[in-house]
Amino acid sequence: MAAEQPAAADKKVKSDTSEDNTLLIIKQQNNGLSELDTPAAVSIVNGDDVRDSKPQVNLSESLTAVPGLQVQNRQNYSQDLQLSVRGFGSSSTYGVSGVRIYVDGIPATMPDGQGQTSNIDLSSVDKIEVLRGPFSALYGNASGGVVNVETQSGTQPTTLTAGTYFGSYGSFRNSVKASGATGDGTHAGDVNYEISASRFTTQGFRDHSSARKNLGNGKLGVRLDDRSTLTLMFNSVSVDAGDPGGLTESEWKANPSQSPRADQYNTNKSIDQTQVGLRYQREMTDNDQLSIMTYKGERHTTQYQSIPLSAQLNPAHSGGVIVLERRYQGIDTRWTHNDQIGSVPFTVIGGLDYETMTERRQGFENYNVVDGYTEYGVKGDQRRNEKNTMWNLDPYLQTSWKLTPRWTLDAGVRYSTVSFDSKDYYITQGNGDDSGSTRYHKALPMGSLSYALTPAWNLYASAGRGFETPTINQLSYRPDGASGLNINLKPSTSNTVEFGSKTRIGYGLLTAAVFQTDTDNDLAVATSSGGRTSYVNAGKTRRRGLELSLDQQFASDWRLRMAWTLLDATYRNDVCGTSSCSAADVTPAGNKLPGIARNSAYASLGWAPPEGFHAGTDIRYMSDIQANDDNTAQAPAYTIVSANAGYRLNWRSNWSLDLFTRVDNLFDRHYVGSVIVNESNGRYFEPAPGRNWGGGATLTYTFE
């Protein structure tokens, strides 16, 4: 977690700074977002920490220092990272669920709650805010937390940057970036811009895990007049990646790099996504501000799976090739009013958020039979054809009251409506009509009371309700294998109570948070086999935890970061995911939730002067992780160490060069990077690489 420096705490946010619809907006507008003053478990990672001596490929490189957040690199670019907050999202078989992700105010999470991180350009990141606990309820359809990414806005002078990285397994990343501005942003006609592009390729640690990723990102801001700004945002990403799949325990121990089924079925995935957003902000009066954010995007996905012929002979099976076309758009309109009653200043925010997505989902056989010979890994006959439509409409109201110089009250409520409709166009003998629709409603209140013991020490207590609907994929299949949507799935509802303390120690920050989250109708994996994962409401679950972090800068150029998370996540009642519910099928109350580490810890020490040699090392510990509800299979605990060193050179006031090298998994530990929860064939394990190395350079030229 990046410690906030005193100068940053007093810094006012510029009018074109990206904002999102939570009570954190109040903190941004009044004081600049502050880890110390915000009455919530929030961690801020600044862009320099994201890029410093790192490949700049995955969020897993820089978010491991955030307590309460578990981010696992699957070593599988076709399935994205496995990211969870306080245990929510740990059972996602691909992508991110249970956690809302935003990039410059544009949701990277669809209305159904399914998100992805592939479009985040790490070379352009200004900061990443990770919000955990009750405040995250005000983002709507997310139970665990929020990851909010803000990219840089151009400033004077004009700067050109070129970067390169190369490492083990034939990995290369090359990038370019240009940023600048005309004027200082305070006069009509002033323009700022930042444009970046990158290409990443790798052969992959595992067999059949090569990947190619092209990414472009742009932001253009214009000062329209002395009271309003307009910001245009553009993002495009293209990914082609092999899918090595999971391994059984015996396969993992025998050869972690193998992929015994991928070559036969040519498992792979291609993604193409383009989106554009427009944000208008205006100061209507000295006390009132209007913000309108609108966006539109398209995402195309084709995936080849390792599903055997025997499974696809079932006429109700959807095949081994998935083709998706998604179109999404939304608008968030918000009014902010600052005022004072007597000696009590307050802020009120009211808004309306609307998001919609239309998905055309098709399925095809992944084989052809010619002259009695079966060829896999090719697109065959159609087996699925449906149109899914989702939308959500969420009015929200937020307020913050400075009751006394020491006491602050924050409160808010969001009323979330999520609608899902599916029309089935593939109806044959043995494959019935899978059409259906459902709608969910939930009021999401929260409140927080904070007390400043001293200007450098704050205490807070907060409570709130979270809400997580089933995603389109979770609704797609029924546990009993019958036709039709899994329409009996209910949204999960979580009630969280949290207490926290934040203390500034010199140029550092010490934070602590203790929480309990009780969830009704939690979503859990019922079966995962033949490329199809079905879900069930698990009844009641409980998550209790403690999060500690320290970010301390000392002796001018030294920095120490430490984080520890204790998370006890268990079922509170017996759970059955099958239609028979025999004794062997029941998960007993008290079992641990799969995919979640009970203990995780991180520590790093770095020496980073502005120029010359720099170096650092970090250590990460993860306790064992249950791979299934029965708690009969586990990914063992592990501890890994990484080290980096480099040299920064500045000359002629215009040029700067940063060279670095790093070694990850320094002691060559044999461990599992992530697990596929409840995989019915016992292929739970996605191995992590052994000792691997990398190096890179960043060259910057500034026009003076």
Folded structure, characterized:
- The structure is a single chain.
- This protein has 7 helices and 41 strands.
- The protein is globular and about 75 Å long.
- The two termini are 33 Å apart.
Task: List the uncertain runs.
Answer: 1-32
Q: Roughly what is the average pLDDT, rounded to an integer?
A: 89
The count of helical stretches stands at: 7
- How many strands in all? 41
Helix content: under 10%
The best one-word shape is: globular
Largest sheet report: 22 strands, antiparallel, barrel
Tell me the strand percentage band: over 45%
Structural class: mainly beta
CA(first)-CA(last) distance: 33 Å
Alpha-carbon Rg, integer: 25 Å
Q: Strands, helices and their partners?
A:
Elements: H1 6-9, H2 24-31, E1 41-46, H3 47-51, E2 69-72, E3 82-85, E4 96-97, E5 99-103, E6 106-107, E7 114-115, E8 125-132, E9 145-151, E10 159-167, E11 171-182, E12 191-202, E13 211-225, E14 228-242, H4 249-254, H5 262-265, E15 268-283, E16 288-304, H6 309-312, E17 321-341, E18 344-364, E19 367-370, E20 373-376, E21 382-402, E22 407-424, E23 436-454, E24 457-468, H7 472-476, E25 492-505, E26 508-520, E27 523-529, E28 532-537, E29 540-554, E30 558-571, E31 575-576, E32 586-587, E33 599-607, E34 612-622, E35 625-626, E36 634-635, E37 638-651, E38 655-664, E39 672-675, E40 685-687, E41 692-702
Parallel strand pairs: 5-9
Antiparallel strand pairs: 1-8, 2-3, 4-7, 5-6, 8-9, 10-11, 10-41, 11-12, 12-13, 13-14, 14-15, 15-16, 16-17, 17-18, 18-21, 19-20, 21-22, 22-23, 23-24, 24-25, 25-26, 26-29, 27-28, 29-30, 30-33, 31-32, 33-34, 34-37, 35-36, 37-38, 38-41, 39-40
